[in-house]
Amino acid sequence: MYELILAHIARHVTLDKQEQDAFCAALQHRKLRRRQYLLQEGDICRHDHFVIKGGLRQYEVDADGRENVMQFGFEDWWISDWYSMLTNTPTVYNIEALEDTEVLQIERIKLEQLFITMPKLERYMRIIMLNAFVALQRRVLFMQKPSAERYAEFLRRYAHVEQRVAQQHVASYLGITRETLSRLRSQMIKQRGEKL
Amino acid sequence: MYELILAHIARHVTLDKQEQDAFCAALQHRKLRRRQYLLQEGDICRHDHFVIKGGLRQYEVDADGRENVMQFGFEDWWISDWYSMLTNTPTVYNIEALEDTEVLQIERIKLEQLFITMPKLERYMRIIMLNAFVALQRRVLFMQKPSAERYAEFLRRYAHVEQRVAQQHVASYLGITRETLSRLRSQMIKQRGEKL
DNA sequence: ACTATTTTTTACCAAATGTCACAGGTCCCG
DNA sequence: CGGGACCTGTGACATTTGGTAAAAAATAGT
């Protein structure tokens, strides 16, 4: 059960056996069925979650009642609302399971305690957050390009994700309507046909 | 010279006199004239910079040769490329002074040393980064709205900035062309006239 | 104060995207 | 097996935004 997460950590810092055990002891296993929620608007987010099976989407509902996807979370991803978690304020996000899903979650408090006794873990988390930050910066810059390029980039970077989530959610992530995405796709298929 | 930055820190954590002095001793004062660069594409970013006077813009140049503004930095803001700084890799950003500008900069290494002896400082920096992260999330969600709303939100949140930077840079920040921004502005003026 | 340069505004047209409506398909559950 | 909920594809049309070019306005630097 802990293989995935330990391997993920090992990619960034080296924990000895004892540290690994201490970390895993703080984790809690949680199962969600498709369409169940890990977090809902108004909740205070008390955990960070690492996905070991399945997938989720994190979205907010805007003033017009539209759902805007902030990010997806599949195997090997951390997903949570860090702002709500670190400031103890109600979240604006919903995190819903797109498939039957399993996560390992850790309470904020336990995580902070571990940071003190295990600075390497803090280093790991800082790297994770930095990567998330950079990914957001890239996304902001990509939003400035035409939707066809955004979709192409999405396919390149998240090919496996695209297979598993409904197109309307991909569209929302890309900041376009499902109709536009559907048209982009049929154009791409047409072009491929011409080239063959 | 250190008033602004100490006040900024005091808003988040409490340092005693000795800690304040230790921190200030690590800072370096740097002046830039309008159009000078604090950082250029390809450089490795070795400092974090706190603006005490003037203003800057951080932008990348994309494959089509367009400049896309990632963020502005005016008084009381930290500005830097954390990714380049923390991973020692060349940056993709340029940071240019929009006015005659003064910053206090601190080397990454010194900052990390201070984190060890002064955990409160690390806490402060984590809060700063968290705020930057949340601002980026908000921006991604706002990119999904029509440009008029984006501009209105920008005016609400950064009214003082809008006064000081060229409209083409605001447009770039918002992800629209300067022509579109210009048209938005004239429409808004017209509407105001009608309401009066 | 004057010129050179940069920035903003405007008009016209083209392209991209959104909205609305409906049809067809799939999947789940009773 | 059938009905309902959900998802995708498509067409007609409206709206938004971009591209280009030229003029007007603002600004910097001497």
From TrEMBL, chains A, B:
GO MF term set: DNA-binding transcription factor activity
Superkingdom as given in the UniProt entry: Bacteria
Signal peptide (UniProt feature, chain positions): none
PROSITE patterns: CNMP_BINDING_3
Annotated transmembrane regions: none
Record domain Cyclic nucleotide-binding: where: 15-115
Listed CDD domains: CAP_ED
Annotated GO CC locations: cytosol
Protein's UniProt name: CRP-like cAMP-binding protein
Source organism (scientific name): Chitinophaga japonensis (Flexibacter japonensis)
UniProt lineage: Bacteria, Pseudomonadati, Bacteroidota, Chitinophagia, Chitinophagales
